[in-house]
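User: ok so my PI wants both of these folded by tonight, can you help

Assistant: No problem, let's get them done. Here's the first:
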Amino acid sequence: MSERFRKECKTMVVSQPSIRCWTTKHVAKWLKEEGFSDYVDLLCNRHRLDGTSILTLTEYDLRSPPLELKVLGDIKRLMVSIRKLQKQNSDVLEELGYTYEGWLSGSGAHSPNSIQGSDWLYNGDPARDSDEPVASLSADQYHQYTNGKYKQHTRRLDPEYWKTILSSVYVVFVFGFTSFVMVIVHERVPDMQTYPPLPDIFLDSVPRIPWAFAMAEACGVILCNIWLLVLLLHKHRSILLRRLCSLMGTVFMLRCITMFVTSLSVPGQHLQCSGKLNSDMWAKLKRAVAIWSGFGMTLTGVHTCGDYMFSGHTVVLTMLNFFVTEYTPRSWNFIHTLSWVLNLFGIFFILAAHEHYSIDVFIAFYITTRLFLYYHTLANTRAYQQSRRARIWFPMFSFFECNVNGPVPNEYCWPFSKPSILKRLIG
């Protein structure tokens, strides 16, 4: 508090102090006078609201964490009392950089210049990242009313780059560990003469296409390039990359377990799967590095056997497809259609090449889609914040998503400063 405010508070100690001088005790007294004694402990003791804080409180603050008032009538009555307080202290609001113009009579709308329309709506986080003045937006552009809560169309999301780095380290470690497990599994592959391919309806009905697996990997490369372009231009690219790394790492860690515990016979006689017996650990590590550096793709010269349950190629194709369709606008029908075509054709080519059993591909598609949908449902609804069980069962999810409240909006921006040619063209 500045020296001027201290002097002002001392001179007004005998009379009613200015709201700028209110402590939590004054706020508690005001709440009791207004008939909100039940909320004194929550607002004053636990969250230490003083005069300035209570003056800038909004209805969204009351509804959202950490306050989360549940009784609608109390929320409305408390906001009425706060608005009276704001009106009585409009000069203080102006000194704080806000103006109070009141609410439109008979409606729930408010002026975009009012305290409710300011950038205090998100618990102190600025409502917009752009340099446009707040007054240039209409009230309808600020909020939509969904499930009883005011939601804001645009809000500031902390990129939390350090978490993104951690998730990247996690997925790199998992890919390295997967490569090593693939080396171990390859040495344990069942003998083709003793254990012939298992019966499979699709593989028995569709003749093998020799070039199909290369086409499946080509579909994956195209999907990967589309995703990288979306990621590069997306405003919240750090959150997207963090989610991709955490999901991809988790699915491939599960794949390590499934392909290690059970070794299936090769799905086709065309596969040259005699065990590569690496005599020492150093030879195994060198082979694992070769698989890891080649991304496990035959296009880069990597050939492995035994890693059948379940299909890693299907995981990558499906995960990239879902991320592309989730983080592009719904109106981008061409991109969505192309993404799904590449995903489905890639899966068909995997089966047509007789590189995996049908059950491998089905389980990979099912696990990938379920994990993606569960993850984003929890993140978008913030259900884990109210569920102790969810935080226990999904600790990594809770860690990565604890500061991302609600869906990530699909907003795009140029990742770097404008090139000189673009500056000349568009200013």
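One down. Here's the second:
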Amino acid sequence: SNPRYLAFRGRALPRATGGKVQELFFGIFDDPEPQRGTLRKMTETIQSIAKAMVADGKGLLAADESTSTIQRRFDAIGLENTEPHRQAYRELLFTTPGFEQYISGVILFDETIRQSTKDGIPFAQLLKSKGVIPGIKVDKGVKPLPNSPNETSTEGLDGLRERLKEYYGLGARFAKWRAVIDITADGIPSDYAIHVNAVQLAQYAALCQAEGIVPIVEPEVLMDGGHSIETCFQVTKKVLHEVFSELSIQKVALDGLILKPNMVIDGIKSGVKSDASKIAQLTVKCFLEEVPAAVAGIVFLSGGQSEVEATVNLQAVNAIGSLPWKITYSYGRALQHSTQKAWSGKPENVDAAKKVFSHRAQVNTLAALGKYTGETVSA
């Protein structure tokens, strides 16, 4: 019943970069026999990095909001959008005690990967010291699609190879590229838009792997419209089919790749809210039909879901069990919305905000394990 899943299951996959071995960022460590006075290097591939990104019970923090996006977040808490405020907020997140128990990696923005703590420690170095993998958003946002102005494609391929080399030097070991697919009543998305975005995602992924960086492939079908959950299923299925066809054409190694999809969910303007069980069943059905088993892992975006909805729906997906991939989270708003409100830009609120962030990371980790039972968790 799952021809695509079965077809990929036994297929030998191309090895990225000719099997080129990359040194994992945390691969240098003290020898367990210190009297020998040596250092050992553990060399790792993109496959090993991808596997670490979806380690049991861990997810990703999407802290890659662009300057314009974080403007909206700061406006909501009455805070001026300045570089010192952005730095202070990211430092709050990255210095939260014990967050590395729940977070395997952090997606950074270009400005953020170049920033440091107030004590002068580069953020990427701070994350690495906690065993958290630094990542980087590399797309440059969406623009109107030529000849279809109500649809978009994503910019950022020009000069990407050179930027990836720089980001690798700055400590990034994975990257993210977001394509945006809208659903409207007048025939959007078009096959044209789906194809263009799939080609761009595959080109980005191939370039990442050539530079020893794990690509997060994010084809987001927006939940902003008035469409039904069944329409979301059909569009998501079509988008994933096209994306994996293009990834295959461009010889991208699926076991060195992370998929960041939307859940199959009702459009916000539809006036309908399916329960978590239906969302999970249709989401998993879609993935089993279109996502090859060789993919290293799936990390959900939260889209327009509330914090609790994103956690409840992740739990429902993992409660199904016996799936060929690790399924966890790569949340931005669903990890940060209440954290930002608790902070509100005030130094005296930092500790309280850290506790809120830690709680959201903990409940989503429970959901990634299929063990979330509610918002109250033991310390």
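The first strand starts at residue 22 and ends at 30. Confidence is low (pLDDT under 50) at residues 1-43. Good luck tonight!
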